Amino acid sequence: MTWHVAEEDLRAYAQGELTPPVLWSADTHLGSCAHCREVLASVSDPVALDAGWDRLDAELDVPERGLFEGLLVRLGIADHTARLLAATPVLRRSWLAAVVFVLITTVGAVYTADSPTLFLALAPLLPLAGVALAYGPALDPTYEMAVVSPVHGFRLLMIRTVTVLSTVLGLNGLATLALPGYGLRALAWLLPALALTATGLALTPRLGPVLAPSLVGGVWVALLVVADASGDGPLAPFTAVGQGAAAAVAALAVGLLFLARDRFDVSYRSAV
User: Which of 34, 71, 165, 213 is the most buried (most CB within 10 A)?
Assistant: First the structure.
């Protein structure tokens, strides 16, 4: 090769001051000329060069934000919190699609049977299942990462719980709007849903993130079966007395959950 880039042009190139078309020619030539690359290295500022490599490494190492994570960051949520939420299994499209399918099916069943009982019975179980899937070694694929993160176990649980509840309760609320003929009766699932979810969380430190919600869900189903067999009127959980009892259970479970908050770190980290 008989032609090389002039040293002053290489200095300008290193400082980002070389302009086209000389810049384009230098770019092409440097790709095939070891001599000019050596000269460029000798005239470049080593501090600026190292800083450039550090910036490049940082850009390559930072994982690309997904649509949901990017939306959370734009809403003002901290990067590390947004990443933990984006990794929550129940916020993925497969789970959300399953919830939407179940709700559409039950709303259709309500119109077929002319009774909201099936919807009211099923709707409280969806938040309970969502929270159960959001945290725990058996169900969360990012559990080990969450355990070693500098976040208190109870705080992580609450962050994910609030997000999951907001999502699932929002979907349940939209499904409720499809039942305008039943008025406020169509909202009778809300207090039982809060009671079941809070109770499942309160029992989690003792029974674990799988057994606790499973037991609570089983008790709910058994209660509905007994209530259905006891008469032809509205099921007991959806009467005024039943709603009051659900509110009391929810309040009691929240209090127990607060008292047991420090046990989440011990019980969850020992499960790894």
Answer: 213
